[in-house]
Amino acid sequence: MVIHWETTAVYNTIMSVSVGVSLLSIVKFFSHLNSNKIGHLEGWALGFGIPGFILTLTGLHMTLTWPLSKMGFAFDDIIFGESSLAFGVLLLAITILLWRKANFYLKQGIDMNDTALVSENLKKSLPHYLKPLSYFAIAMGCSLIAMGCAGVTFRLFAAPPQEPISGLFAAYPMIEATFMSILLALTGVGAILFAVNQKEKPNESFAKLNKGAWIITGIIWTSFGILNYFTHIGLIVHTMK
After folding, report:
1. pLDDT tens for residues 130-164?
2. Alpha-helical regions (H) of the chain
């Protein structure tokens, strides 16, 4: 198989790493918030803003241009492009929100080193700010579950045999189809739990399930993206002219 790489683009490496790190960052942020350890919000804003920018940029390009269709994987442009775009925009919205809250607290004379005071103020207002975003998050969470169902139904995500490591399972398409489908669906379940739990007194069971789902998927997305830096480079080497 020969792929004309000069006419296509594959960047779900950086997309996967960005998604995984973002999920783990959200879990860490709320863990610190619940422990009254949130202080300087600008750092957290940048922590969400950098992957948010990457996902918005790459997701938008993939959504509008369908680069993977040139390789015969048009469905990946929808699955990875549109979901990354949606998550990226949500992360940018959170970035703006936290940056504005930091400026507001400074104008009020709040000491940003007083993590207990900052955290308590943020816990009171944050659910009200995130609630409007939660409706879109629920819809995209359900969409991720639908993508997972499509992956198993149509046996998607199988790597070509020329790709190192992942290509070893090319003859068994259901292995990678099941793995990726569960990963997408579990990420979606976490998104739904996170969204419906945006209230002043969140349900502890929902919070624990959400945390568990996003720790698992965050680690896997990050590890998968890191692995793909090797496997995708290998695929390019094996299939370029």
Report:
1. 999 999 999 999 999 999 999 999 999 998 899 99
2. 12-34, 41-65, 74-76, 83-107, 115-153, 173-196, 204-239
